[in-house]
Design a protein that fits this description.
The complex is a heterodimer of chains A (474) and B (296). Chain A has 474 residues and is an alpha/beta fold. Chain A is 35% helix and 17% strand. In chain A, strands 3-2-1-4-15 form a five-stranded parallel sheet, with helices on both faces. In chain B, helix 4 links the parallel strand 10 and strand 11. Classes of the chains: A alpha/beta (474), B alpha/beta (296). The complex binds flavin-adenine dinucleotide (2 copies), iron/sulfur cluster and FE2/S2 (inorganic) cluster.
């Protein structure tokens, strides 16, 4: 393509993401977004006006060199684009799929002032996928061995990215994971239709090739404490995520049919309950039943869309604020609607009711309206007096967030945590108060995003590297 | 992958396994459990660590084959492997010198109670063990219990061995005899644990039970194992499995454990069919090779 003027670039419409048909996909677990073709990607890349002072970069938590990788796509150097991405983001195929671009990089994009912003996330995904399919995951050069050993606790994005950097710098790195598979939320939480597990697997295999060792079925704190690890590792990174589901504390939450989103999604994703009885893990049969999911975040969207795919006749989001306050990615809300998910906004559950055998039968809801803004700046929902209704429902999935899992801090009594149990770290280095121990990701921030966890893992890797050059200084 | 070193039946459908698990053996304390997955398609099920040998890096479990997963597990032999095994999980038993402690086990519950009975003895208690079984062949670990306990009473529902009746009958008898009992540990089917709690409640005897809710991760991540204790929800895999029997809502536990009753039936049927098919396949192969022999 000849060199375009900015005006010409701005005139190109945002290229559509090829998707599975909503009707079909709402009954299968295959990926919804099919990915841009080479032609679509190069056309989309031409929409970037190559700002001399790109604002998008500042919007990205890890400051991916966005215009540079996009330009490489535009000229057809897809391998170069992937390499450029990896300078800052170790998991671009994943971030391209799950980052909330509309509030990070794309919201800052100047093209978006008048038209739709450049589809940065889709291009990121394109380049990373192209590399994986055509070249396999590229193994960077590994530095000479430092002879030092690092334990990474937790195989989520924080742990994996920390491991990826350290192994390249010549460290002997072992990832310890509680579950039987590596990936954290990427494998047990985010469903196949949004993030195929083969992509996570390819990343893990890439790390394995570099020499990272993986020890699954290892609950740090129980199988071995952090203090015991420090006896044979030079440093420990804690990336254990925010794995303790909150319930609503309303009557009836013990009824059969009430799941936490973690349990619901783990059964389906990690344990493959959708393929019962070929896989042994069961799931309550939701065929022809009403399923309500409480919450408005990505987790809630994943759960409700999973319920549809499992055969629910009605899959409903129940959220106590309005759509504008929903924390989920816009694309997920949009996809959920297309697939037939119903939204009951400004409704808050009061009670769950069951039959004499303990099976959930209905949910009592309080209608809300929006009042004054709260601390988070979102308008606070307030109950409308007397506006109470009851809805028949067989399964309720509670997706109102996660607290921090107590295992690590109970077994590491001198590790500083805040009142919510999140590990306290120095923001620049991810150092905890305990010598040789670093932490990052959801266990520090509370439930956040993949890119923030990944960024924290890399920041910690740098700090671990510096610390081990000079271990006397802590 | 964890290798099975030893495997043998102790009672009909109750199998003892010694499995390589050095990390678990090193750390485990009485009252803790593991979660294992038999194969790639398997579900994660919790099993109590009956014993461990840190030096040789092995743990022992005793498994009652009641559904697909436990029956599949019980087909494995020494030399086979289980796909995944993680632990030790849960809070160890709270053990102190109470005075006289009664350990009650119903069916495979005796295996779960055994390590804690050992720990109670080591802590200086006088330990009485009641071992319940449907009939004689279901009474397990009697010899092992005899080695560590001061008194051992087998009971059978049908009277084929020991005391004729339920474990609660024997317990009541001991109380009526005027034995001073300071502590009761009861592990077995939920109705048994509930009944024991009712026997000891009027006497104010401290009673602990080990709850067996359905689990997935066993680390507090899913909340599926929640039970109601003292009116509050608890995650049994982290806070338990042992709780004050007088505070547990057994009815909620009973109903929640029935969540997958339909699926469990289906799974078991498909397992039996599968085994049957395998037998038929084997028979066909045998027949074929027999035919080959005759043709040759
Ligand atoms: C359903 C769902 C959907 C989401 N969707 C999005 C999205 O679209 N976009 C986005 O950016 N973010 C999303 N998030 C959030 C994102 O997944 C998390 O912020 C991110 O995964 C955090 O990474 P982490 O590495 O800190 O922790 P995790 O991914 O939680 O990984 C932690 C790992 O540590 C292991 N672990 C825990 N305790 C121990 C222990 N004691 N010993 C050993 N291992 C241990 C856990 O088993 C787990 O594998 C979603 C989250 C959920 C639950
Ligand atoms: C802490 C703990 C320790 C245990 N220790 C032992 C032991 O030492 N020996 C032993 O034989 N059994 C033990 N159990 C019980 C054992 O886990 C169940 O018998 C087993 O999971 C049944 O699986 P199944 O597929 O064979 O049977 P299914 O037909 O699937 O289920 C039979 C019943 O087992 C229970 N169950 C089913 N799935 C699970 C699951 N994933 N987790 C927990 N319970 C489930 C349910 O009540 C169900 O109705 C223990 C349970 C717990 C919670
Ligand atoms: S990593 Fe996320 S925020 Fe950064 S450029 Fe990619 S999509 Fe945007
Ligand atoms: S088994 Fe998942 S929280 Fe206990």
């Amino acid at each position: 393509m000849p060199e375009l003027t900015n005006k010409e670039r701005m005139a190109i419409p945002r290229q559509p993401m090829p998707e599975q048909d909503p009707e079909a996909r709402s009954r299968n677990f295959e990926e919804v977004n099919l990915g841009l073709t080479e032609e679509l990607a190069r056309m989309e890349a031409e929409r970037c006006i190559r700002c001399p002072k790109p604002l998008c970069i500042a919007g990205c938590p890890v400051e991916v060199k966005i215009p540079e990788f996009i330009e490489l796509i535009a000229v057809g150097d897809f391998a170069g684009a992937a390499a450029k991405l990896k300078e800052d983001n170790s998991l671009p195929a994943i971030c391209g799929r799950v980052c909330p671009q509309e509030e990070q990089c794309e919201i800052k994009c100047v093209v978006g002032k008048k038209n739709e912003p450049v589809a940065i996330g889709r291009l990121e995904r394109f380049a990373a996928d192209w590399e994986r399919v055509n070249l396999g995951i590229q193994a960077p050069k590994v530095a000479e061995s430092t002879g030092k050993k690092i334990a990474i606790v937790g195989g989520g994005p924080a742990g994996l990215s920390c491991a990826g950097d350290l192994v390249q710098w010549g460290y002997d790195v072992t990832v310890f994971e509680a579950l039987h598979e590596i990936g954290g939320v990427l494998v047990y939480g985010i469903p196949e239709f949004r993030l195929p597990k083969s992509i996570v697997k390819a990343e893990v295999e890439g790390l394995e090739k570099l020499g990272v060792k993986f020890q699954t079925n290892y609950v740090v704190g129980m199988t071995e404490t952090v203090d015991e690890m420090l006896e044979h590792f030079d440093a420990v990174f804690l990336g254990v995520g925010a794995g303790l589901p909150y319930f609503m504390n309303i009557p009836g939450e013990h009824l059969i049919g009430v799941y936490s989103a973690n349990e619901f999604l783990t059964r389906v994703n990690l344990m493959k309950a959708y393929d019962f009885p070929n896989y042994d893990t069961p799931m309550i049969d939701v065929h022809g039943k009403n399923v309500a999911v409480i919450g408005g975040g990505n987790t809630a969207m994943d759960a409700v869309r999973t319920a549809l795919r499992l055969g629910a006749s009605r899959a409903v989001i129940v959220y106590r604020r309005s759509e504008a306050e929903m924390p989920a990615r816009i694309e997920e809300i949009h996809h959920a609607k297309e697939e037939g998910v119903e939204f009951m906004l400004l409704h808050s559950p009061l009670e769950l009711k069951g039959d004499e055998n303990g099976w959930l039968t209905s949910m009592v809801l309080q209608k809300m309206e929006l009042g004054e803004p709260d601390d988070s700046g979102r308008r606070r929902p307030v109950p409308i007096e007397g506006a109470v209704e009851e809805m028949p429902v067989s399964v309720v999935v509670v997706a109102i967030g996660n607290g921090s899992n107590p295992i690590i801090h109970r077994t590491t009594p001198d590790l500083a945590v805040n009142k919510w149990g999140n590990i306290v770290v120095d923001g620049d280095t991810m150092k905890t108060n305990k010598k040789g121990v670093f932490a990052g990701g959801d266990i520090v921030t509370g439930g956040a995003t993949v890119i923030l966890a990944m960024g924290a893992g890399r920041t910690a890797a740098k700090a671990i590297h510096e610390y081990l050059q000079n271990p006397e200084t802590w | 992958m964890n290798k099975i070193i030893e495997a043998n039946f102790q009672a009909p459908d109750v199998k003892f396994f010694r499995i390589e698990a050095p990390h678990v053996a090193r750390k485990r304390k009485a009252g803790q459990f593991i979660i294992l997955r038999v194969d790639e398609f398997g579900e994660r099920i919790p099993l109590t660590i009956a014993d461990s040998d840190a030096e040789n890096g092995t743990i022992s479990i005793i498994v009652q084959g009641i559904g697909k997963t436990t029956k599949k597990l019980n087909t494995l032999e020494a030399g086979d492997y289980v796909r995944d095994l993680v632990g030790p999980l849960g809070t160890p038993s709270h053990v102190e010198n109470f005075g006289t402690a009664v350990s009650i086990g119903g069916g495979v519950g005796t295996a779960i109670a055994y390590p804690t009975a050992v720990a109670l003895k080591e802590a200086g208690n006088r330990v009485i063990s009641i071992i319940g079984g449907r009939s004689k062949e279901y009474v397990i670990l009697e010899n092992e219990m005899k080695q560590i306990c001061d008194e051992v009473y087998p009971t059978t529902d049908d009277g084929s061995y020991g005391y004729h009746g339920f474990v609660t009958g024997k317990l009541q008898e001991l109380i009526d005899e005027g034995k001073k009992i300071d502590f009761v540990l009861a592990i077995g089917p939920i109705p048994m644990m509930k009944a024991v709690a009712e026997v000891t409640r009027p006497y104010g005897i401290k009673t602990v039970v080990s709850l067996n809710p359905i689990m997935v991760d066993g680390t507090g991540m899913c909340g599926g194992c929640r039970a109601i204790v003292d009116g509050e929800p608890v995650f049994v895999c982290v806070e338990g499995p042992e709780f004050d029997a007088h505070k547990v809502d057994f009815d909620v536990l009973t109903s929640r454990n029935r969540t997958y009753i339909l699926q469990e039936k289906k799974a078991l049927e498909s397992f039996h069919e599968c085994k049957l098919e395998k037998k038929i396949d084997e028979a066909v192969v045998e027949q074929k090779s027999a035919e080959e022999v005759t043709h040759a």
